[in-house]
Amino acid sequence: MNSQSEPEAAASAAAVSLLPIIRVRDLTKTYHVGDVDVHALRGVTLDVARGEFLAIIGPSGSGKSTLFNILGGLAPPTSGEVWIDGIDLRALTESQRTEMRQKKVGFVFQRYNLLPTLNAQDNINIALALSGRKHPPADFDQILDLLGICDRMRHRPRALSGGEQQRVAIARALATQPAILLADEPTGNLDTENSSAVLSILRDLNKRKGQTILMITHNPEAASFADRTVAIRDGRMQAP
């Protein structure tokens, strides 16, 4: 009989919850540009705890965007191990990586990437449809309220401020209940006031909802909103 008893199942679930939701070991990425090898990542090792808000800070060309793309299943590594919520990305086919992205990862980018002909609600609905979900999570109205966009759902992007567009992009990423929210310079196109508001929202989502967030940024002020900060330079992790 293979079924677990209730105590065994509870113990197994507790053990899983203690494992890092992101686990990276000796990760490398090399690009071949003509006759030159460009080493974007050089043996990166990283753990991110479930429910953590982590900022990875580094200058342009440090490798942080390459790491972001690999963690999101957008690009394969050259070597090393990557585990996302218990899934070994090395074992996945391209179609399986796509499915993993749709079900496990929410993306927020510097460019909001909203479809201009659709209103905010329909931009969110498309993300739901692509993930195979018919409805957002039960507490989604609370998330919209936290984001401050409940009354903006019928507006198209051109009728929204930059800060509002980024909040819609965050709502779209959270509609599929991702295990991890990956944010790539989420305040890069915003002024100081809107940047602070969006970062405060991310921090509140992490604290109130337990949402795991990994944010990459070049801005130390943005990184200060996270629970923990690690630095990357020349493809290697460093003490910040």
3D structure, described in words:
The chain is α/β, with parallel strands linked by helices. It has a single domain (50-76, 92-238), classed as Rossmann fold. The chain is built from 8 helices and 10 strands. It has helices spanning 6-18, 64-71, 94-104, 120-131, 140-147, 162-174, 192-209, 220-223, and strands at residues 22-33, 36-48, 53-57, 79-84, 87-88, 105-108, 180-184, 212-217, 228-233, 236-238. The chain has a 6-stranded mixed β-sheet with strand order 6-7-8-3-9-10, sandwiched between helices. It has a 4-stranded antiparallel β-sheet with strand order 2-1-4-5, with helices on one face. Strand 9 and strand 10 (236-238) form a beta hairpin. The longest helix is centred in the last third of the chain and has 18 residues, at 192-209. It is globular, with a radius of gyration of 18 Å. The N and C termini lie far apart (51 Å). Residues 9-15 have low confidence and may be disordered.
How big is the Rg? Answer: 18 Å
Main beta-sheet strand count, sense and barrel state:
6 strands, mixed
Strands of the widest sheet, in order across it, are: 6-7-8-3-9-10
Order of helices and strands: HEEEHEEHEHHHEHEHEE
Question: Per DSSP, what share of the residues sits in E-state strands of 2 or more residues?
Answer: 25-35%
Q: Oligomeric status of the shown chains?
A: single chain
CATH class: Alpha Beta
CATH superfamily: P-loop containing nucleotide triphosphate hydrolases
CATH architecture: 3-Layer(aba) Sandwich
Mean pLDDT: 91
List low-confidence stretches.
9-15
Query: Helix count, per DSSP?
Result: 8
- Tell me the distance between the termini: 51 Å
